[in-house]
Amino acid sequence: MASLCTIILLICVQYNVGYSFMEESESLVWPPEYHMKAEKINLDAGIVESMEMWSSAAVNRSRIDFYGGLVKKYYQWETEDEHGYVYSLMPQSTEEYQNKITCGMQRIKDEDDIESNLPKIEHYEHVGNEELDGKKVEVWKYGRIFEEKRWQERILYTYKSDDYDIPVRFEAKNYLMKNGAMTAHIITNYYNYESTVDEQDLNEGDTDDCEYMGTLGEDFPNDIKHLHPAKETDVDVAFHSYKKHHQKKYGSDNEHEMRNAIFHENWEMIEHHNRQSLGYTLTLNQFADRTSDEMEMFTGLLPNPPELEATHPFHSDEEVKKIAEELPENFDLRMEGVISPVKNQAHCGSCWAFASTAAVEGAIARSNGGRIIDLSEQSLVDCAWGLGCLGCDGGWMENAFKYIVKHGLPVEQEYGSYLEQDGLCHTKNMSISYAIKGYAKPTAHNPQALKVALFKHGPVAVSINFNKKMRYYGGGIFYDPDCNKGHTNHGVVVVGFGVHDGTDYWIVKNSHGATWGQAGYILISATDNNCFVLSRPVYPIV
Length: 542
What we know:
It is a single chain. This protein is α+β, with helices and mostly antiparallel strands. It folds into two domains: 4-215, outer membrane lipoprotein receptor (LolB), chain A (Clam); 295-303 and 311-541, Alpha-Beta Complex (Cathepsin B, Chain A), CATH 3.90.70.10. The chain has helices spanning 4-15, 220-223, 232-246, 253-275, 317-324, 351-367, 377-383, 397-407, 412-415, 447-457, 468-471; strands at 33-42, 47-56, 61-66, 71-78, 83-92, 100-108, 125-132, 135-146, 150-161, 164-176, 182-194, 211-215, 280-282, 331-332, 438-440, 460-464, 473-478, 490-500, 503-509, 521-525, 539-541. The strands form three sheets. Strands 7-8-9-10-11-1-2-3-4-5-6-12 form a twelve-stranded mixed β-sheet. It starts with a helix and ends with a strand. The relative contact order is 0.10.
């Protein structure tokens, strides 16, 4: 396999640019006024998005419509007041009305946020001429490497009109440097260019009923409603707001650009998913600037560990059937007040410790009348190595339960705060530890058995495939057929079950903090053992 340096050199030669990728031989100039249409094709997601654009530098206004005017965005800048506004018109459906066109308005602080709807043109180099769709065009290329991890390639095809460059096609590709895998491929075709604009098309009309949503870039949940990943300036504003909202800090400008590119890819994917109305939504959460490789540290199950024998038997199949007849349709242990608050494993592969501890906390609370005891995940990370767990490098709930049977768990207040890394084991100094008698295993692949375990015994630790879509879960009942094509990599806790509109689901507590999902929880469909919830359940016995 070629070295990274060799790959970089080949790329530089191919695109006739230096390692900095910043040298310019000629420059592109977009027209100051235009009206044109475009079609954006996301080849990975299968999205074809139609757009229509207007822009006029003379009046400092621009507009972009999506899907034939289904969504309209108007941008205007007030030179004297040194601020501007963006007006977003879009359909909205509620319990009271359906497809009502609503208007939201946000203040703009930076004039760059209303610049051309066309791609940014800094750093492109002219590399030749071609014929594209019967038209002679100039070809411009730009490429850059982020942190020696990702390669971003941009190609513009243009022709001249009145000394301005008119776009015909814009092609964006992103690659992983380690193996050359393409992570994004988007083509935008432009057509029907006109050099003049009717100012009436830039007038947003009656805005008296527009709801004021604050200043763009200051409130991420509101900002993202008025921004669109097809507009590069919107991507920059959204990423700035995202960073502020999630308190993100990066080590260099290069890393900032790389994270921006990852954020953009994920935003495109999330927007496409949410348009399909698949029963659950995705959201730009704290993981939206992370790669798939980086997300491995946010899970933590060891691959294919040997299955340990349960210390206690579960109910027989006959008993399960009999008890199941009396089960309620909906059951939630949180309503009993026995489930501890959602915690955050952060940058440590300790999901196994959090799932085990959460299950034990719930079982103890159920046995003592609802008094929740905050037990120490860090003690498992530090001390359970002799039972087959590897701290932040992974573990398994059965092994953790075996450790707790033998050694118990101290409370976090006495043992010390969670460190987000491996630490020194110091359980000998603890005044009290909470042990369990053992653990039992509900019958695998049997939804009635899992319901019986929850109803009779308390929370159940399970292993799931925490796949890419689940990372960005925002709400609804999660069902993804691709989730069963992978493997289990994450430990979580089932705390209940229910049914909504004929769809059965599990209520699952995660360990990524209360800002993830629905206050730290996800509803996973019970259909087809989605994401392997039923494959290896286990619960503690106190």
